[in-house]
Amino acid sequence: MIKTKTILPSILIFLAILVFLNLVSISIFTRIDLSQGQIYSLSRASKQTVKSLADRLVIKAYFSKNLPGEYADARRYTQDLLSEYQAYSRGKLRFEFIDPSDENTLKEEARKNQISPVQMRVIENDKFEIREVYMGLAFLYQDKTESIPLIQNTRGLEYDITSTIKRITAQGLKKIAFFQPEEESIPQVPNMPAQAEEFSTVRQLLTESYEVSIIDLKTELEASVAALFFAGVKDSLSQQQLYNLDQFIMKGGNVLFFQDRVDANIQQQSAKNIESNLFDLLTHYGIYIKSNLVTDAQCGQVQIQRMQGIFRMVTPVSYPLFPIVNKVNKDNVIVKNLDQMQFIFTSEIDTTRTGDNLQFEPLLFSSNNSGEVKAPRYDINVNQYMNTNLKMMLLDESKVLAGIYTGTFRSYFADRKDYPDALLENSEARILLLTDREFIEDAGASSVKGNLDFVLNAVDYMAAESTLIEIRSRETEFKPLREISSNAKKSVKWVNILFPSLLLILFGIIRYRNELKRRKIIGELYE
Q1: Which residues have CB under 8 Å from 74's CB, separation 6+?
Q2: How far apart are CA 419 and CA 423, in angstroms?
Q3: Exposure letters 447-465 (e unless 16+ CB within 10 A, then b)
Q4: Is 287 helix (H, G, I), strand (E, B) or coil?
Q5: Beta-carbon neighbour count of residue 493 at 10 Å?
Q6: What is the pLDDT of residues 167-201, one digit of tens each?
Q7: Domain spans of the chain?
Q8: What is the chain's alpha carbon radius of gyration, rounded to the nearest angstrom?
């Protein structure tokens, strides 16, 4: 009876503590995330976004209950993520899960909220069937609606949700001017996308966060333009175009240049320098691009056809003029967490001749097994790299392929009497240079995720919208295995083979000796 009286108050106090902690957890939410990069908890930018909501935001998660097994985790992950958003929103964000599969009214509601069902092939109980499922999010804020129509892969979902929240709650999107060469300056190739679609992937991504306008630089840029995206040229600009570009910079405008120094064609196995007055402008500022093509042992492959007897064989060849880049400036937010990127015929930025009034911050580098193909004779023939140890051939140190210039830019038209109204200089502008136009082309390397992440991060940075950068790339860090010598590989192999056996033998010896001691002690006790 005494024990019961003693235990009962302790149980009641324990239950009271549990209830108190649950009540506190409703208003105070925290999570300890020990993963590298803390990829399983909300970033600071996401927390700040929902904390600063001015009005109530409702997220309707349209998810079918009968999802195929491989997508069940997507539903759970989405629910956990939305719970965190709700906890940090101070009561301004609410979410609910809805299964519209069996109710026509809910199906109609999902359709109005821009969520449509998708058909998936499912094998269940040894039976194949086509199942119609919902896996999307609708965001309702004031009188506006945005959606994420389909969530198949949860990677990058936090970025999608936070960017959607920022978009739907924004009073107005920042403006980006997108310059690309005129259609008539570049010949159209049959059965290839028209020039207007040459950068459609990049432009489409930019329109999700910015108001993008395509310009020809024949007129003065609006003062409201946050950054100019310059998609490279293969010819000279008119004086008016050059003047408008120069004066945009003199007004403190930020420019992203994706500009080749060499025009190379792998089909024709030919390359030549691009002759453009754009390089005169850049040189005047103190920006120099070498007349070379960078080669790298860490590179992509091309397919070449060879005749072997009467058969035509396709052989993959590592082609060092297509560098794969994962060496980045870890101190810069644009690139510090980026995955690998693909370049196609790129040149080296000459960092030894940077203008006296400029500061240069490198962003991307080739690997430590680099080289170059020099002007004037650019030998880009693929056959020379067949059956070749590129690491033995390419022994130069890494080369700079992208970077940011800041400092004082003096106008290219400062001493021109025919341009008396030209602004003379500016120290607030920034220029980002990447020496590869194909990096952003639909027919080039724009489908590579690392390339797209770089473009979006760079635009956010130059347009002063850097809050989303840490979210976009926090899950994309590329960590290749460290290269080791062949002798080291053999050592690791034999350690893996012998160490477990030696460990087992040692354990057996120790166990045997302990058993002998135990028997000796028992024998002494009964003697």
Answers
A1: 67, 135, 151, 152, 153, 154
A2: 9
A3: ebbbbbbbbbbbbbbbbeb
A4: coil
A5: 10
A6: 888 766 889 999 988 753 444 444 444 444 789 99
A7: 1-30, 38-169, 176-292+327-367+399-472, 488-527
A8: 31
Distance CA 218, CA 326 (A): 38
Number of H helices, E strands in the chain: 12, 23
For residues 285 and 409, the answer to whether their CB atoms sit within 8 Å is: yes
What is the residue type of 277? N
pLDDT score of 121 more than 80: no
Q: What is the token pair recorded at 28? A: 């105070």
Pairing between β-strand 430-434 and β-strand 254-258 as defined by DSSP bridges: parallel
250's tokens: 């003199």
| Residue 372: count of CB within 10 angstroms of its CB | 19
| Helix 72-88 vs helix 157-169: crossing angle, to nearest 10 | 50
Q: What is the rounded CA–CA span in Å between residue 10 and residue 16?
A: 10
Residue 22: per-residue pLDDT:
65
| Domain 176-292+327-367+399-472 bears CATH identifier 3.30.360 | no
CA distance 520 to 525: 9
Task: Give domain 38-169's CATH architecture.
Answer: 3-Layer(aba) Sandwich (3.40)
User: What angle do helix axes 277-285 and 239-250 make, rounded to 10 degrees?
Assistant: 20
Instruction: Give CA 37 to chain center in angstroms.
Output: 15
* pLDDT at 189 (0 to 100): 44
Helix intervals (H) in 251-377: 277-285
The residue with tokens 């000459």 is 350
Q: Is residue 349 a contact partner of residue 486, using CB atoms and an 8 Å limit?
A: no
pTM: 0.74
Say how far apart CA 70 and CA 314 lie, in whole Å.
Answer: 36
What pairs with residue 60 in β-bridges? 96, 138
CA distance 57 to 453: 28
Nearest residue to 288 (alpha-carbon basis) of 337, 236, 350: 350
Beta-bridge partner residues of 407? 358
Q: How far apart are CA 491 and CA 498, in angstroms?
A: 10
Q: 3-class DSSP state for residue 102?
A: coil
Q: Which pLDDT tens digit goes with each residue over 368-415?
A: 999 999 988 999 999 899 888 999 999 999 999 999 999 999 999 998
Rounded mean pLDDT, 408-426: 92
